Amino acid sequence: MTDLRTYISGRSSGEALQTATVEAILALAGAAARIATVIREPDASVDFAATRGSANADGDIQKALDVICDEIVAAALLAAGVATYLSEEREDPVPMNDDGLVIVACDPLDGSSNIDTNLSIGTIFSLLPAAAGPFQPGRNQLASGFFVYGPQTTLLLTMGQGVHAFQMDSSGIFHLLDWAVSIPAQTSEFAINAANSRFWNAPVAGYVADCVAGADGPRGRDFNMRWLGSLVADSWRIFRRGGVFLYPGDRRTGYNEGRLRLVYEAAPVAFLVEQAGGSATNGAGAVMDIIPEHLHQRVPFLFGSYTEIDEIVRHHSLSEPPIRKE
Length: 326
Ligand code: F6P
Ligand code: MN
Known about the structure:
Bound molecules: 6-O-phosphono-beta-D-fructofuranose, manganese (II) ion
CATH architecture of the largest domain: 2-Layer Sandwich
Structural class: alpha+beta
Number of helices: 7
Radius of gyration: 19 Å
Number of domains: 2
CATH class of the largest domain: Alpha Beta
Distance between the termini: 52 Å
Number of strands: 15
CATH topology of the largest domain: Fructose-1,6-Bisphosphatase, Chain A, domain 1
């Protein structure tokens, strides 16, 4: 079996930026192995789901495990020579090494509302060249991926030449899986938080109504719905068997641009999705082309099987443009 170090070292030409990229990915894998152990082992001294009393920079409630994971990732990246750390859990970019060549954006613990439910959670990351500054479009990414802490600890990784999947063993080593990662073009499964349906815009409401109408409606076939409330877990399923994920902008206060963050959630997942033959849009254009204006910027995020995303985009072009500002 090929391990992660052998696999990614074999893809590097030895050029300085590629070497720095490999070092950062290996540091993230080391951090993920540590996080997987923290999650798995019983520890009566800490309540991982305890809230910190304060919201993080995004306005989400910070849990104790969010902060522990952020510290594990930050220490690993500092030691790996990373230039700047962009974290969901930090207000501003964190400068690390003056001579670093790579910026790492990270959601250290995605899906943290599921911590105490024993559902899959994960770590999402995006690597960018330091020379171009902290706020770059997703197209500039050198690599991206996410770890899932679930029944298995896994990694989906792209370095811009397709997507590869890995599974961690009991000693914390990630092994390449024999899986040609490709999102099936067709699907009859959608993922959306239907509790927000009264706030949806017309294109999203129209698309979902057509799915729910099933064989009796314009789509002429029945659909299924899944929503885990954990982006990494919903994404892994879509990479595995197809599907679409929708977190659109909606009319709730503070949700006009949806919930997910561009820099450390949507852009890295969009890079993986495009590399696996799917598509990722905000309803008006590719998520990969959006230039962030600030670290915690939100973005409507619709991705998955490309023929179904085409159908969602068709609804947007028929109807009002997606909500932009309050
Ligand atoms: O990081 C944000 C997140 O937890 C994602 O993992 C998940 O997809 C989403 O929020 C769930 O949002 P909601 O609780 O509104 O359904
Ligand atoms: Mn998250």
